[in-house]
């Protein structure tokens, strides 16, 4: 058995049992090749559990997929497929509503454990270290690909090697190209099938914009100006219940990965990058300082509690009518259109404002960093090489990422964008693009456009786990607490930590 896997399993077990400090765990795991998402410290999917659930009565499967599953699955009847997953919109929709359809058609039992991401990591790591095959399908964050590419089967090879189990019309080419490249491919191996993808888009209160005569911002400067106008008008209590409405908000909790997400968004939006081509830190250059100055000025138009918020606090703020605009995760949008929202039917979605100057090219960065105002996070669904029920697992993985299943995940309460191109144009998706209903899909054209035009990805290096979830947001938190005299001092310190950590 691979020595690295045993080492990884050991440190995960110690951390979960409280025998290892968080910082030591993050550092040790990073040295063994896991990225930020793998450590459960950078999840962008905690909102999945907040999304509306699908309604079984509304589901009517089209085509011959379900009848084909019934015919082909007879040899596997009674087998069980197990998946450990974070709380994501697809996993929640499948587990709460869609799974019984698969089980009835196939006779295959599906057990889905919805866990905090660090526990998913623990389960997966111990499984591959032991080779026991406790889990048949793996939920893989984008930053796990390097660590676990040798423990899963390339789905394209499974499809070709098992023609009798190849779902008719599955169509790998229907998956959005940027997602295949960005969240599923590693060194020419397709580690899994694109499962879900949240990205940064801009969302704003249409009623506030109309009342104040504001136009949708197309530049970062216009976004700032709108925030200032809204903030000035907030003293007039734009909310019906008398509460003020702030110009914008953020996810800026000190020491939390969400703070790093906002930082990279503004850094990229000002033509900067985290890294130079030689792998050294670039965030302290003139563009990086300009981004910090812009961010500080923008923060003047945010609620005072913003420095205590992760993505959960940010989402709740707008849900309760607290702020009028934000650039953040598109999976918020259906939640804000739900029955529990005070802004139901009032939110609009557009692409994030254009950067102040041309984005830095990937070739001008290090470690595969891709600057873009649409900060992305994604995951794939993979079949374990150690599964004792691999054929049943492959049937489930195909069904869970099939066109028809994605339609229902998306239309009936998903929250994140589908990974298949065709789903965006399905008439059931278009029909659900209504205002003021749970599970709305009226933001999805924006999500798709962002994936193709604005999607940004962080550096791909093992040490990024510790840097993005500890060092960088800790130092940024110190800056917002007034412990640094200038943005330059803060960036210089982050640069020292970064370069020392990666050996640049």
Please outline the helices and strands.
Elements: H1 3-16, H2 22-31, H3 65-72, E1 80-85, H4 89-106, E2 109-114, H5 117-130, E3 137-141, H6 145-148, E4 152-153, H7 155-161, H8 177-184, E5 185-186, E6 189-190, E7 193-196, E8 200-205, H9 206-212, H10 220-233, H11 257-269, H12 286-299, H13 311-319, E9 325-329, H14 332-336, E10 347-350, E11 374-375, E12 379-384, H15 390-400, H16 403-411, H17 421-425, H18 427-431, H19 444-453, E13 455-456, H20 464-480, H21 487-502
Parallel strand pairs: 1-2, 1-3, 11-13
Antiparallel strand pairs: 3-12, 4-12, 5-6, 7-12, 8-9, 8-10
Helix pairs in contact: 1-2, 1-5, 2-20, 3-4, 4-16, 11-12, 11-20, 20-21
What does this structure look like?
The model is unreliable at 33-54 (pLDDT under 50). It is built from 21 helices and 13 strands. The chain folds into two domains: 44-199 and 379-431, D-Maltodextrin-Binding Protein, domain 2 (3-Layer(aba) Sandwich), CATH 3.40.190.10; 200-374 and 457-502, D-Maltodextrin-Binding Protein, domain 2 (3-Layer(aba) Sandwich), CATH 3.40.190. The strands form four sheets. Strands 1, 2, 3, 4, 7 and 12 form a six-stranded mixed sheet that branches. A three-stranded antiparallel sheet has the order 9-8-10. By secondary structure, the protein is an alpha/beta fold.
């Amino acid at each position: 058995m691979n020595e690295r896997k045993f080492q990884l399993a050991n440190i995960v077990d110690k951390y979960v049992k409280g025998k290892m400090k968080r910082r030591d765990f993050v550092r040790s795991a990073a040295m063994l090749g896991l990225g930020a998402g793998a450590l459960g410290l950078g999840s962008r999917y905690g909102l999945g559990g907040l999304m509306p659930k699908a309604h079984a009565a509304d589901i009517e499967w089209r085509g011959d997929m379900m009848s084909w599953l019934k015919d082909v699955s007879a040899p596997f009847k009674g087998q069980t497929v197990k998946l450990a997953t974070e709380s994501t919109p697809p996993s929640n929709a499948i587990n709460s509503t869609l799974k019984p359809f698969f089980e009835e058609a196939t006779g295959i039992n599906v057990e889905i454990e919805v866990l905090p991401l660090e526990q998913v990591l623990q389960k997966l790591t111990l499984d591959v270290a032991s080779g026991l095959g406790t889990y048949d399908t793996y939920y893989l964050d984008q930053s796990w690909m390097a660590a676990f590419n040798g423990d899963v089967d390339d789905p394209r090879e499974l499809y070709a090697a098992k023609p009798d189990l190849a779902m008719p019309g599955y169509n790998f080419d229907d998956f959005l190209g940027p997602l295949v490249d960005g969240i599923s491919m590693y060194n020419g191996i397709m580690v899994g099938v694109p499962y879900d993808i949240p990205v940064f888009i801009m969302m704003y209160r249409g009623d506030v914009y109309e009342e104040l005569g504001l136009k949708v911002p197309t530049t970062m400067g216009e976004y700032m100006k709108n925030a200032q106008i809204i903030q000035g008008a907030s003293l007039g209590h734009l909310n019906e219940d008398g509460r003020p409405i702030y110009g914008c908000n953020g996810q800026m909790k000190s020491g939390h990965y969400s703070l790093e997400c906002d930082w990279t968004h503004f850094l990229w939006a000002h033509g900067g990058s985290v890294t130079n081509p030689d792998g050294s830190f670039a965030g302290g250059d003139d563009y990086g300082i300009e981004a910090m100055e812009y961010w500080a000025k923008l923060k003047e138009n945010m609620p005072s509690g913003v420095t205590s918020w992760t993505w959960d606090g940010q989402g709740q703020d707008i849900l309760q009518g607290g702020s009028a605009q934000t650039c953040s995760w598109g999976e918020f949008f259906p939640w804000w259109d739900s029955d529990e929202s005070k802004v139901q039917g009032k939110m609009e979605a557009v692409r994030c404002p254009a950067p102040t100057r041309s984005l830095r090219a990937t070739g001008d960065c290090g470690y595969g960093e891709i600057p873009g105002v649409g900060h992305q996070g994604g995951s794939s669904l993979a079949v374990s090489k150690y599964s004792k029920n691999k054929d049943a697992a492959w049937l489930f993985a195909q069904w869970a990422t099939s066109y028809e299943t994605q339609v229902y995940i998306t239309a009936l309460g998903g929250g994140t964008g589908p990974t298949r191109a065709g789903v965006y144009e399905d008439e059931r998706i278009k029909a659900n693009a209504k205002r003021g209903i749970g599970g709305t899909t009226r933001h999805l054209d924006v999500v798709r456009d962002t994936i193709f035009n604005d999607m940004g990805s962080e550096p791909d290096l093992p040490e990024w786990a510790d840097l993005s979830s500890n060092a960088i947001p800790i130092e940024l938190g110190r800056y917002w607490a007034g412990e640094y005299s200038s943005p330059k001092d803060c960036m210089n310190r982050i640069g020292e930590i970064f370069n020392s950590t990666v050996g640049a």
